[in-house]
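ok so I'm stuck.
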Amino acid sequence: MKTFNTINQLQNYIAELKAQGKTIGFVPTMGALHNGHLSLVHAAKANNDIVVVSIFVNPIQFNNPEDLKKYPRTFKTDSNLLQKESCDAIFYPSVEEMYPKKVSKKYNFGPLEHVLEGEFRPGHFNGVAVVVAKLFDIVKANQAFFGKKDFQQLAIIRKLVEIDEIPIEIIACDTTREKDGLAMSSRNVRLSFEERKKAPLLFQALQMVKDNNNNLPPVELEKQALLALKEVFKPEYFKIVDGHSLQPIKQWSDTDYPVALLAAFLGDVRLIDNLEL
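replied:
not stuck anymore, here's the structure
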């Protein structure tokens, strides 16, 4: 496994492989890797000759400076995990390498970016889009692999590929969960022992909605889920939406692809999750 810190080094490596007819699978991450990330590496390896993983904590997607400061940085552990998973290359650039100049690029994702996460994290998705577009341009992979846990981010990235006409295939992989249902996340390590015991209630709320979506309208289920969450969490949203447009639905007949999404604070840790219904 090779580690590259500069764009030129990585691009030279990839150019050699592409000249040999090798296909590239790419997994962009911010590090603090867990089994969810590793499942993406497995999928990339199963579908491509070479796997490249980027580890870059992207400062321009954090609208809360404290959140950026607290984000776990565990490169040595991450590198060891990727070595075991037969990853071929890690791209581990500095902020200066990625952003030698001030970022001014602004994307317009329309209604996709103003709901859910977009309502509570202004500028977040523009920061995500800028770094992902740059990484796609650097790596020039055949396929890129993303988890469905960040459901809205996945929709934004699909739209980004369409807007910028990027020649890459986006592969969505199912959310990896702990045995008690909690979605795996790099933020989970910040939960206290007591908070960790309560955290699976998020998935239970989503499952309750899935179990009752034949009996009650979406708006009523949203209310019930929020009431249940408020006993333990500080919820920001619990919405049932059309999985294509991410716009809220009032009745089940409004969509053929309903998805429930939530964000909630447990202590000072913000968790997100979703479930296709």
